[in-house]
Structure formats: structure tokens, C-alpha cells
């Protein structure tokens, strides 16, 4: 008999990716306003490009990019996530995508292959790992191409509930995405821009079983008390 999942995994994203890919997929599928891909499409031309989507997860970003790209390859280390992504591609009849095993620190492709490389909310936070990802991504990108990394604003882990999830005293100590930005801009010359979005879950039950499941009991208690259905 399948084991009943816990009420929350308390920020254990490793468990989420490995053991609860369907919960991650439900979380990733929550509508965002604006949609990340729409923001990127306004700034970058994906038309007819060969794209590597690093950390593709359950395939949402890969399938969205495939609407305009020639071919998109999703690179994802977790077997369970790739299985969901492949099912989604088949269901949607998306024929110009592929999903392969691999990680951002050792990309299994030759140099100068891709027109563009994307990494959307890639979970790398140590400076050495970020630098290795950047070097690998640049290695497999053609001259004149683009490497696009989408992260979370510094001190904004979990969106507006950062102080609830981490505790107010810790919010300004947790600057993981600030580290990412500094490494990419200072060591590799990336430019950056900010945009803000919100996610509408539709009901308290839905936000608790997705967002709350991931981010912890403090978040769940707050969501229920405040009857939240939206995260900024």
C-alpha cells in the first residue's frame, strides 16, 4: 500500500524532486502573472533555435520554449521528473522536445552546439557550483548565442512569505540568489533585469497542498489563518 505523504517536506527540495515529482509538477503548473516564458520572449528571440533547458524538471519550461523554438532538449538529473516531462510532451503532442539525464555541472554535450541555454530556477547556490554551471553553459553555447538564468530575487525565497518560512531574523542572512547574481555578473559578465510575478492557486486547499507542502508548517499555518490563495 502506498505510503501517505507527509503534510510538508519542510523545504527539502531534494525529497520533492526525487519522491514527490507530481507535487512539484502541480506547483510548477500554478498560473503565474506574468508567465516567465512570456517575459523572456519579450526580450529574446527563441524562433527556430536549438535550446538546452538545464534543470528542466517536469518539463513546463521546456514545453513552453518549444512553442517557438526548433528543438528544445531538457536536461534533468531526476528520473521521476523526466518521466513526467515525457508524459506531458506526449499528451500535448509536442514533437520537438527531448529529455535527457544530466546536471548543470557536467553538461553531456559537445562545445558550441546550442543557440541558447536556459536555466529557470536552477537550484545551485554555492559560488563554485554557480561558476561551474556558467562555464559549462557557455561552453556548449555557440558564439553569439545566449545563456539565460532565471532565479529568485535576493531575500525573496518563497515569495512574500520569506519572513514566515525562514523567520524574520534570518531573511537578510539568506541571500542565495544574490550570490548567484554576483557570480554571474562579476565573474562572467552577465547582464540582469528584474521582474515581479504572482501565482494564483485558486483555493486555500490548493495552496496548502502545493506551496505549503514544499515550504513548511509555518507557511501552512499562515496560509490557513490568512486564507491566502495568491503568492507574490
Written account of the structure:
The chain has 232 residues and is an alpha/beta fold. The protein has a single domain (13-159, 171-200), classed as Rossmann fold (3-Layer(aba) Sandwich). It is built from eleven helices and eight strands. It has helices spanning 13-19, 21-28, 36-43, 60-65, 79-92, 127-139, 162-166, 168-171, 176-188, 204-215, 217-226, and strands at residues 32-33, 50-54, 71-75, 97-100, 114-120, 141-150, 198-200, 230-231. The strands form two sheets. It has a five-stranded parallel beta sheet, sandwiched between helices. Strand 5 (114-120), helix 6 and strand 6 (141-150) form a beta-alpha-beta unit. Helix 6 crosses helix 9 (176-188). The longest helix has 14 residues, at 79-92. It is globular and about 50 Å long. The protein starts with 12 loop residues before the first helix and ends with a strand. The mean pLDDT is 92.
Keywords:
3-stranded antiparallel sheet, Rossmann fold, globular, 8 strands, alpha/beta, 232 residues
What is the structure about, briefly put?
The protein has about 230 residues and is α/β, with parallel strands linked by helices.
How many β strands by DSSP? 8
Please summarize the sheet with the most strands.
Answer: 5 strands, parallel
The neighbouring-strand order within the major sheet is 4-3-2-5-6
Q: What is the CATH superfamily?
A: Vaccinia Virus protein VP39
User: Could you say what the CATH topology is called?
Assistant: Rossmann fold
> How much beta, percentage-wise?
15-25%
Radius of gyration: 18 Å
User: Unreliable segments (pLDDT under 50, ≥5 consecutive)?
Assistant: none
Query: Residue-averaged pLDDT, rounded?
Result: 92
Q: What series of H and E elements makes up the topology?
A: HHEHEHEHEEHEHHHEHHE
Q: In the CATH hierarchy, what is the architecture at level 2?
A: 3-Layer(aba) Sandwich
Give the N-to-C terminal Cα separation: 38 Å
Amino acid at each position: 500500500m502506498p505510503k501517505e505523504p507527509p503534510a510538508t517536506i519542510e523545504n527539502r527540495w531534494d525529497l520533492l524532486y526525487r519522491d514527490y515529482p507530481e507535487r512539484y509538477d502541480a506547483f510548477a503548473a500554478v498560473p503565474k502573472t506574468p508567465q516567465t516564458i512570456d517575459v523572456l520572449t519579450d526580450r529574446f528571440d527563441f524562433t527556430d533555435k536549438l535550446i538546452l533547458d538545464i534543470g528542466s524538471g517536469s518539463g513546463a519550461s521546456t514545453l513552453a520554449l518549444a512553442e517557438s523554438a526548433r528543438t528544445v532538449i531538457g536536461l534533468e538529473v531526476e528520473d521521476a521528473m523526466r518521466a513526467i516531462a515525457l508524459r506531458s510532451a506526449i499528451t500535448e503532442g509536442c514533437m520537438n522536445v527531448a529529455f535527457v539525464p544530466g546536471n548543470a555541472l557536467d553538461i553531456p554535450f559537445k562545445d558550441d552546439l546550442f543557440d541558447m541555454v536556459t536555466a529557470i530556477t536552477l537550484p545551485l547556490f554555492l559560488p563554485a557550483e554557480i561558476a561551474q554551471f556558467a562555464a559549462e553553459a557557455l561552453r556548449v553555447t555557440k558564439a553569439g548565442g545566449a545563456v539565460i538564468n532565471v532565479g529568485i530575487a535576493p531575500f525573496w525565497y518563497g515569495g512574500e512569505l520569506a519572513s514566515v518560512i525562514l523567520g524574520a531574523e534570518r531573511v537578510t542572512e539568506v541571500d542565495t540568489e544574490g550570490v548567484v547574481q554576483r557570480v554571474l555578473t562579476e565573474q562572467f559578465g552577465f547582464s540582469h533585469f528584474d521582474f515581479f510575478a504572482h501565482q494564483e492557486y485558486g483555493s486555500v486547499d490548493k495552496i496548502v497542498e502545493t506551496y505549503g507542502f514544499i515550504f513548511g508548517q509555518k507557511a501552512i499555518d499562515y496560509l490557513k489563518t490568512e486564507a491566502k490563495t495568491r503568492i507574490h
